[in-house]
Specification:
By secondary structure, this protein is α+β, with helices and mostly antiparallel strands. It is about 45% helix and about 15% strand. Strand 3 and strand 4 form a beta hairpin.
Length: about 220
């Protein structure tokens, strides 16, 4: 679930440090119960929030409920700021979307037959969880690699086109496969039951290391 509001409105409803001043940056993460809720500046005087959870919308008892009600139900009994932000966001502007991926594959097109000069790129070829923030980047890289491999190829020659496409697939699959696996692993870890504990250990270690470097 995602929502956006004006920073001025955010400051009126959120009365906790360190977000009272318009000059204070906003970057807040709340984790636990295999869920995440993040709040951040998104530029142009706007605040964005994102809530994620393992959620089967098709089997949910509130599958037909408005999006804001679903978000409130999922984050019921969470810190008050979560409920406050969801309720303060225009219900029609709250976006709900699923996150999907799949295991990497060894080919994105047909090896033989009339479709062997057909391939895929972007999410169609390698759907990836957003934990690495690389979805669009990989699609642009695919496009460049695709164009490079077809440059100078006689597009009327099916065999040469098919060969160029396989070279494109090989080059890109070598890059996207490990990233798909890494994003999948991080996505699962971000919704693990012990996420709050692991983040606490990480932050404590980071703070301790920062203190060492500043002395």
């Amino acid at each position: 679930w995602r929502g956006v509001m004006d920073r001025s409105h955010f400051n009126k409803i959120v009365k906790i440090e360190p977000f009272k001043s318009m000059d204070d940056g906003v970057n807040l993460s709340i984790v636990g119960d295999a869920k995440n809720f993040c709040v951040m500046d998104c530029g142009e005087g706007k605040i964005a929030w994102t809530g994620t959870a393992i959620y089967n919308s098709e089997n949910s008892v509130d599958k037909h409920a408005p999006t804001n009600i679903k978000a409130l139900n999922v984050f019921k009994n969470w810190p008050p700021i979560v409920k406050t932000l969801i309720e303060a966001t225009d219900a029609s502007a709250i976006v709900e979307s699923g996150v999907y991926d799949r295991e990497p594959v060894s080919s994105w097109g047909a090896l033989e037959g009339k479709f062997k000069r057909t391939t895929l790129l972007g999410d169609a070829a390698h759907p990836i969880r957003p934990s690495l923030g690389l979805g669009s980047t990989l699609a642009f890289q695919d496009s460049k690699c695709f164009a490079n491999n077809l440059s100078g190829v006689d597009l009327g020659n099916t065999e040469k086109v098919a060969t160029a496409l396989k070279l494109y697939e090989k080059e890109r699959i070598d890059v996207t496969t490990p990233l798909q696996k890494k994003a999948g692993k991080e996505g699962e870890e971000s919704h693990a039951e012990n996420r709050a504990d692991t983040m606490k250990v990480f932050l404590e270690a980071s703070l301790a290391n920062k203190k060492k470097t500043t002395h």
